[in-house]
Write a structure and sequence with these properties.
Layout: E1 3-8, E2 11-16, H1 22-49, H2 63-92, H3 99-117, H4 124-132, H5 134-148, H6 156-176, H7 183-216, H8 228-243, H9 251-270, H10 281-306, H11 311-338, H12 347-365, H13 372-398
Antiparallel strand pairs: 1-2
Helix pairs in contact: 1-2, 1-13, 2-3, 2-5, 2-7, 2-11, 3-4, 3-5, 4-6, 5-6, 6-7, 7-8, 7-10, 7-11, 8-9, 9-10, 10-11, 11-12, 11-13, 12-13
């Protein structure tokens, strides 16, 4: 593994390249952890599908809650960290967080994963303290830089990080025994907070990246259009949907907000000329992720209001579909850009995009054609293959120094 030299008082040390930038450590760790977490979940499902059972598990919570928690507050939180630690310095013109912060925050994130996995043998209060520490640590890097520059519109992300922390806290409060029924609401708050971040960030980068790419090739048709009133309505609605999973909010209001958020999200997407980007996988995956986002809000809203569909299946169109595809899209694109490589993804990554979308669609709609275990195992296997391809292709990119042009 490549290393960098850093000196302190004349004594050089060697730091692995993967620890020199937030996107390197967190994007690689997120991919590896995603494979592990989904593999553990599918193994558990596979054993039960075969008629077996586990005498005990290392985690204290039910396996399905462990799965939900770790995909949101483990995997997704790592991608969010990699993005913010890299993007906020670019937004503010400040210095990027150094190796010391990457090592410290990465250690906190890893400690949380171990604490949750071995929670059956650790006091739940300690588990909570270790796992909940990550977002506050991450926020110190974000807040410090935003506070130094006039970044009013980006302060919303601090509020969303607080909401993410709140969702995680709601889960731990039930596991400790201090509340009776907050874990399910907590994971949903985490999912909808993450989708709100995707809606806001994606609303900025998807039309901008598409416009730049179309101009670069001399495209003669209409360019992406963003309407200020529609963008503001979309941001407001996705923020409200995240808050709607606080315990006191009635379900009918949640459903109405999700329905409105889905409609506005799809209206925003309609102006971004996604069809013109169809020949560029690194672009169309962004449009596909945003399509899954808007569709997920719509399907989930209709489900809450009518009860005609599985709430969990509808939720996975957002969780596995929108979050999964957008995080993979951003990791593959940002890693190339910051590593000094051309913004062209390889064929294995294109296959990973397709596999991931298929995994989300199977999980969300497969129950009508397949049995429960068949749906879960097929979807999980597709997800594992997608992220295994990502890790295989991007491991050397994220662990070797930037190419200087």
């Amino acid at each position: 593994m490549a290393t960098h030299r850093f000196g302190a008082l004349g004594s050089p040390t060697r730091i692995p390249t993967v620890l020199t930038a937030g996107f390197r450590f967190f994007f690689l760790s997120a991919g590896i952890f995603s494979v592990f977490a989904m593999l553990a979940w599918t193994v558990w499902l596979g054993v039960h599908a075969a008629g077996g059972t586990f005498i005990s598990t290392p985690m204290a919570m039910a396996p399905h809650l462990w799965h939900a928690h770790e995909m949101v507050f483990g995997y997704t939180a790592a991608v969010i960290a990699g993005f913010f630690v890299t993007a906020v310095p670019n937004w503010t013109g400040t210095k990027e967080a150094g190796s010391l912060f990457v090592i410290a925050s990465g250690t906190v994130w890893l400690a949380g994963r171990f604490a949750i996995w071995f929670s059956n043998s650790i006091d739940p209060v300690i588990v909570a303290a270790v796992d909940l520490a990550f977002v506050p640590v991450l926020s110190t890097a974000v807040l410090g830089r935003l506070a130094r520059k006039s970044q009013a519109r980006n302060m919303v992300f601090l509020a969303l990080l607080t909401a993410l922390l709140t969702g995680n806290l709601m889960m731990h409060l039930e596991w400790i025994g201090w509340t009776d029924d907050t874990a399910q609401a907590g994971v949903r708050m985490g999912i909808f907070t993450s989708t709100a971040m995707i809606a806001i960030i994606g609303g900025r980068v998807v039309p901008a990246f598409t416009r730049n790419a179309l101009l670069r090739v001399g495209y003669q048709g209409s360019l992406p259009v963003s309407r200020v009133w529609l963008d503001r309505a979309g941001i407001l609605l996705v923020l409200l949907t995240a808050l709607a999973f606080l315990p006191f909010v009635p379900e009918v209001l949640r459903g109405g907000l999700c329905l409105a958020a889905g409609l506005v999200t799809l209206l925003r997407l309609a102006g971004w000329q996604g069809w013109a980007a169809r020949r560029e996988p690194i672009l169309w995956i962004l449009h596909a992720a945003y399509l899954l986002l808007g569709s997920g809000y719509l399907v989930y809203g209709v489900t809450l209001l009518t009860g005609e569909y599985s709430e969990t299946a509808a939720l996975h169109l957002l969780a596995a579909g929108a979050i999964g595809s957008m995080t993979l899209a951003m990791m593959t694109r940002a890693s190339l850009g910051h590593a000094g490589l051309p913004l062209k993804v390889s064929r294995p990554i294109v296959l990973a995009y397709v596999l991931l979308i298929a995994a989300a669609l199977v999980r969300s709609f497969g129950l009508s054609a397949l049995g429960y275990f068949e749906t879960m195992l097929l979807s999980g296997s597709l997800w594992i293959m997608a992220f295994a391809l990502y890790v295989g292709v991007y491991f050397p990119i994220l662990t070797t120094p930037r190419i200087r042009k």
